[in-house]
Amino acid sequence: MGHHEVPKLNDPSLLISKAYVNGEFVDAASGETFEAHDPSTGKKISTCPEFNKQDTEKAIAAAEEALKSWRKTTGRERATYLRKWYDEMQKNAADIATLITWENGKPLTDAKGETQYAANFFLWFSEEAAHIHGDTVPASIPGNRVYTIRQPVGVCGLITPWNFPAAMITRKIGPALAGGNTVVAKSPGETPFTANALAELSRRAGIPKGVVNFVTALKNTPEVGEALTTDPRIKKVSFTGSTNVGKLLMKQAAGTMKKVSWELGGNAPFIVFDDCADLDAAVAGAIACKFRSSGQTCVCANRIYVQDGIYDKFADKFAEKVKNFKVGYGFDDGVTHGPVIHDRAVGKVEAHVQDAEKKGGKVLTGGKRMTELGDNFFQPTVIRDATMDMQIAQEETFGPIGALFRFKTEKEVVALANDTPVGLAGYFYSSNVNRIYRVAEALEVGMIGVNTGLISDAAAPFGGVKESGFGREGSRYGIEEYTIIKSVTIGGIESELQG
């Protein structure tokens, strides 16, 4: 597909320029809209409604009304709905992937991978829905019987980012619905169309009106976020995004004491010890981990630490691989990496490169904008001799720079890796079984990859520690965030049989 052709959907009705409230596609009451653009070409894809507080309140009211009957459904019934939604995603996987590449820019291969990953959350939580168990608790008073039940928390407000336009949404909606809750989801202003296609597929799956609502906004995003975090009808908020916004939303949610779970920024260390069994595998793992989605994931390697003895060899092999990337339009054949999301992102990447060079870092490949491709393209970059005083060590870059740091000892590198206020993911390569346990236990992060750079799986708990947030998504723990535990004590039960 050439640069100037508009991508084609097999089912053109899946490109929807509305929001989804109470089972219907609607406009904002004001009639106001915003434009969403293809980050590769800068061309407008379409518009979506610019929702405000009042529009959002209508969606909340719809979710509150739908909750009355939805919460009474059995886990098995909810499982069937989620399974149907999963089936619809499988049927329309090619179009979902096209929408992701179109509005996010990631290469089509990556978008296809995300579509499958996203659908898997519906599959996983369809299987969990019928297995939400309570406990029987031994009481300390002989005449008492105590048991617990798990009940839905209520209407959930969900706020998701643009870097995984499908998966960030399904990872929250899956467990919310499985647990018997209804949702108002705020889709990202940069990538609203994948969310709208998912909304249409929920309708086709027969999910009752009001159970799932999608609100859209760009400039009104803070106002919509405030509505979701302060409205007393919303009992739970789940947010994926930056730590700063997470802190603001948490303050707002405190006023009504909402249950919250946050998945915030990271600054992932990726450590290669000289006892790693296969240097090429470590290079490949670092490449996959660092440059997936052009470095725009919260779990990608941000600081790559390589031990003294293998540092130069690793740096050469790593840079050689990055030189062979093909950057371009996500729909073009052979393209491995697309643009970053917008010009502000390019600016940050460029600033990090310049800061690193100023402080003694050496650019082995890349380091420049790719204006010949478009405004949002930056060369995949490798910088060696990085130091902890560089911006790239202190901040999450969210772009295509691999910075290599040298270290001598295990003790030193774990201290460096932990020297950050956040802790989402961490990775290391080693073939020493003692070291694997020791270092995995010592790194202050919520998720660890050992001898692999890719750790995302619907079955594995996803989330961080420190300022990367709390709560877990996916896995059997993921549903706990969307239920409350109620204990029931029955007194006065006689132990003597009657008669």
UniProtKB/TrEMBL annotation:
The gene is UGA2. InterPro entries: Ald_DH/histidinol_DH (IPR016161), Ald_DH_C (IPR016163), Ald_DH_CS_CYS (IPR016160), Ald_DH_N (IPR016162), Aldehyde_DH_dom (IPR015590), Aldehyde_DH_Superfamily (IPR050740), Succ_semiAld_DH (IPR010102). Residues 25-488 form the Aldehyde dehydrogenase domain. GO terms for cellular component: cytoplasm. It is an enzyme of class 1 (oxidoreductase). Pathway: Amino-acid degradation; 4-aminobutanoate degradation. This is Succinate-semialdehyde dehydrogenase. CDD domains: ALDH_F5_SSADH_GabD. SUPFAM superfamilies: ALDH-like.
